[in-house]
Amino acid sequence: MYRFELWFDGQCLHEDDDVFESEMEAMEEGIESAVERINLWKMENAWHGETVDDFDIRIKEVAA
């Protein structure tokens, strides 16, 4: 079982409470979270060209 954390510029922006069956599934959710964050920044006129590659998506294994 796996969870993800979304990091940007040395800060944890999101630590997910959901548990995923595979690392791949957790990574896909992390990428989706980064895309949502970018879209939020765009709506708030706070986007400065950041891309998903600028985020650090950390996958953590958790006990079942």
Q: Keywords, please?
A:
single chain, 64 residues
Notes on the structure:
- The structure is a single chain.
- This protein has 64 residues and is of the alpha+beta class.
- Helices cover 33% and strands 28% of the residues.
- The protein contains one helix and three strands.
- The chain has one helix at residues 23-43, and strands at residues 2-8, 11-15, 56-61.
- A three-stranded antiparallel sheet has the order 2-1-3, covered by helices on one side.
- The radius of gyration is 12 Å and the shape is elongated.
Summarize the SSE layout with pairings.
Layout: E1 2-8, E2 11-15, H1 23-43, E3 56-61
Antiparallel strand pairs: 1-2, 1-3
Largest sheet composition? 3 strands, antiparallel
Structural class: alpha+beta
Number of helices: 1
Our estimate of the beta-strand percent is 25-35%
**How many strands in all?**
3
Report Rg. 12 Å
The helix/strand series, from N terminus to C terminus, equals: EEHE
Widest beta sheet: strand line-up: 2-1-3
The rounded distance between the terminal residues' Cα atoms is 6 Å
Apparent shape: elongated
Low-pLDDT regions? none
- What portion of residues is helical? 25-40%
Averaged pLDDT, please?
95
